[in-house]
Amino acid sequence: MGTEVTHTQSWAQWPVRPDAPAWTIGVEEEVMLVAAPGYNLAQAVDEVMPRLPIDLASRVHRETHAAAVELATEVHTTVDSAVDDLRNLRRAMRQTCDPLELQVASSGTHPFAVSREISVTRGERQAAVYGSMRELARREPTFALHVHVGFHDPEAAIKVFNRMRVHIPMLLALSANSPFWQGRDTGLASSRTPLFQAFPRVGIPRRFESFQEWVDTVDMLVTCEAFPDPTFLWWDVRVQPRVGTIEVRIMDAQVTLDATAALVALVQSLAKMEHEEAWAEEASRSAVEVHDENRFLAARDGVEVALIDPVQRRRVPLRERLDTLLPLLRPHAQDLGCIDALESVNDLFDTPGAGYQLRVARRAERLPGLVRQLCAEF
């Protein structure tokens, strides 16, 4: 069902696709270009883009920084097919970069990049970002994993959007994969999170009681030229009317595709469960300060976090939260065909990305050796 909009709100028109499969997914993975032998970031997107295979070039996108690209899958009905798509995109990136003596890696941050070495890429959108952000756009690049879940109805999407806000800290904790910044151990599991916080319109958004309320709010900002369109809302979760999805954006980019598959399965299963069972409805009405604090705790502590449960009014360790949620999610994952990937969420808890990076960085090659290992596992 579409939603009625005025001519000034064409960006809010939800696509009408009654025959489309339910719970479709699309995955976007931001990755870094690296130059051996020092394993520094390579500001080389202008060299890479013209050399991509024609059939994949439309799915590799420039980012704000010249050392970053986004790999975007087609629309898929299963996690397995989406991850296979990503595997092909990763392979194409490696094959394209090899003749240029470049490598590719995936992590929430580059462990020792510094802002003075960063270039902003060319492009209309990137110019708009730089014009808006000024020198904030030159901070060290961060790399995220984004997951879209398709909805036929914008009102259903906004309800799940509200409830998914509750799960953002858990998803961040499980995906935290950026302990280093500017060559230092930050003590944070995800340094990407506070780094990206320098941008406006980020974090966990407020609750909206209807899709129309969201449209009215965004329309005022677009009409007043605060930003050109809703894609400049860089919230941790957002609705995307143009493609008829909600998009979860909080997660750090993952080293391996197995880790990515687990997170995609978790997001898809959570979206289906929240649509059908409204598990987080009460918690979604809690004060924004609770959600914001949980977000910080997750970025700091990763899988060791104990999140504030506003309904029980106590701190709940992440392991306990997973032990509650996973049994509820399994029937949905079974329906979606992603039960094996969902079970791998336990591997994310047992061998978290941030801990892996810290262990590798203790070896003789230190941080350059860590980036070399990230490239090897890409």
Please tell me about this protein's structure.
The protein has 378 residues and is an alpha+beta fold. The protein has a single domain, classed as 2-Layer Sandwich (Creatine Kinase, Chain A, domain 2). 44% of the residues lie in helices and 16% in strands. The chain has 15 helices and 14 strands. The strands form 4 sheets. Strands 1, 2, 3, 4, 5, 6, 11 and 12 form an 8-stranded antiparallel β-sheet that branches. It has a two-stranded antiparallel ribbon with strand order 7-8. Helix 3 runs antiparallel to helix 8 (257-277). The longest helix has 22 residues, at 154-175. The radius of gyration is 20 Å and the shape is globular. Residues 1-8 have low confidence and may be disordered.
Key terms for this structure?
two-stranded antiparallel ribbon, 378 residues, disordered N terminus, eight-stranded antiparallel β-sheet, Creatine Kinase, Chain A, domain 2, 14 strands, alpha+beta
Topology:
Blueprint lengths: L24 E11 L4 E2 L3 H4 L5 H4 L2 E3 L5 E5 L6 H19 L4 E4 L18 H10 L10 E7 L3 H22 L4 E2 L2 E2 L6 H5 L5 E2 L7 H13 L10 E2 L1 E4 L4 E8 L4 H21 L3 H4 L3 H14 L4 E4 L4 E4 H19 L2 H5 L1 H6 L2 H9 L4 H12 L1
Parallel strand pairs: 9-10
Antiparallel strand pairs: 1-2, 1-4, 1-5, 1-6, 3-4, 6-12, 7-8, 11-12, 13-14
Helix pairs in contact: 3-8, 5-8, 5-10, 8-11
What fold name goes in the CATH topology slot? Creatine Kinase, Chain A, domain 2
Number of strands: 14
In N-to-C order, the SSE pattern is EEHHEEHEHEHEEHEHEEEHHHEEHHHHH
Shape: globular
Radius of gyration: 20 Å
Distance between the first and last residues' Cα? 40 Å
Label the CATH architecture: 2-Layer Sandwich
Unreliable runs, pLDDT <50, ≥5 residues?
1-8
